[in-house]
Every structure is written in structure tokens, then in C-alpha cells.
Amino acid sequence: MHKATPAAFCVFLAVHIAVAQTDSRGEVLKVEAAFNEAKIHNDVTALDHILAVEYVGINQWGARRDKSAALQLFGHFQTASLVPDHVSVQVSGDTATVDGIMRESSGGTQMKFLFLRTYVKRQGRWQLLSAAQTFSVNPSTMTVIDPAPPGQ
Fold this sequence. Notes:
Helix content: 25-40%
Low-confidence stretches: 8-21
Shape: globular
Structural class: alpha+beta
Number of domains: 1
Radius of gyration: 19 Å
Strand content: 35-45%
């Protein structure tokens, strides 16, 4: 019988972790897409399933909402489109962060902002724990600017 060397075991473990993280990233992105679709379609049932019980969100205007308030808002708030761009997913165990740029069309208004969401995996499924979004501003003038893609 052939014994695995410590180096071979480390390579096996690294590959296994990389594959698991890739799978998790894909799962998180599916939930992220479902979250955006549920908001567009005012699907409170889907949102109730996606949002964690202790969910908290802060929108680009600074309004803070818990799960109940978010469900109430998205039961009627008209969002025509949500188009994510430059999305990045980082997974660490049962926690994942998703960040990027979001283009939103609501009530005839077009907005572009940065977003950051935290997901947790519970009982085999990813749920949205927190969300924050903000307009990108020029710090010297405090005027809204077009957000640069992450890393630029």
C-alpha cells in the first residue's frame, strides 16, 4: 500500500478546498441573482426565504431596515431593473461576501452605486445576513461620482 506524503496530502487538501470554494461561490451568486429578481418582482415569499431572521440592510440614502421592514418595502417598491457589474465573491467557511457595482432603475430614475452583502450558510442554504450600498463620492467635494470598478 502506498502512503501519501505530507506534501501530497497538502496538495489534495488545497485542491479540495478550492473546488469547495468555487462551488460555494456559484451557490452564493445564485442566491444573489434570486435576491435581485425577487426585488424586481416584489416577491415577498422569495425574499422571506433569502433574508436571514436577523437581516439588516442600509441603502444608499442611509436608511436602515431589518427583515420585516425590507419585506414591507419590497412588497410594493417598483424596481425596473438591477444590473450588477464587477461582482466579486469571497467565501470563508459558512460566510460569504459579495461586492460590486449595481445599476438600478426605479421610478424612472437611474442610479449607480457600490454594494456589499454578507451571506451565511445555515442548514445547507445561503441566506442574506446584511447588505449595504452607497453612492461613490469624491472626498474633496463630497459630490457623487461614477464608481470605479473594484481594484481601480
